[in-house]
């Protein structure tokens, strides 16, 4: 029996898996070039967690590339994290479609929080 809840749980499972992939990639990434040994350890862990999901590795890589620009202080570390996702088997063809999503998220980060009075819509009197 297939239903909405099954599709949603799959989506929830994907989001949890992406969160794990993101955490692993960012934990292993550095602001400097990684050594071959560091790359090997990170890639092995990412492959084990991703479990044959190159689409999710590509999603994380694309979002990292789009979110962190070259002038961003976190840029070098994010590029290393994206590289680790690629080395772990990210689907290269899917990465470009996630870059705009990373840019969109970065733009949202630059906006004031919703609680900021400047962003509130006046209520009709």
Question: Overview of this structure, please?
Answer:
This protein has 125 residues and is mainly α. It has one domain. The chain is built from five helices and no strands. The radius of gyration is 17 Å and the shape is globular.
What's this, in brief?
The chain has 125 residues and is mostly helical.
Strand proportion, as a percent range, falls in under 5%
So what's the overall shape? Answer: globular
Percent helix, as a range, is: 55-70%
Rg over CA atoms? 17 Å
Task: Return the average pLDDT rounded to an integer.
Answer: 87
Q: What is the number of E strands?
A: 0
List the helices and strands and how they pair.
Blueprint: H1 4-28, H2 36-50, H3 54-67, H4 75-87, H5 95-110
Structural features:
5 helices; 125 residues; mainly alpha; disordered N terminus; single chain; globular
């Amino acid at each position: 029996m297939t239903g909405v809840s099954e599709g949603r749980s799959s989506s929830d499972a994907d989001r949890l898996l992406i969160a794990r992939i993101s955490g692993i990639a960012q934990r292993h990434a550095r602001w400097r070039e990684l050594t071959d040994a560091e790359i090997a350890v990170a890639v092995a862990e990412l492959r084990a967690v991703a479990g044959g999901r190159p689409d999710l590795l590509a999603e994380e890589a694309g979002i990292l590339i789009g979110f962190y620009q070259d002038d961003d202080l976190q840029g070098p570390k994010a590029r290393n994290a994206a590289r680790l996702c690629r080395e772990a088997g990210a689907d290269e063809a899917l990465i470009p479609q996630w870059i705009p999503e990373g840019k969109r998220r970065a733009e949202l980060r630059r906006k004031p929080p919703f609680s900021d009075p400047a962003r509130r819509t006046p209520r009709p009197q």
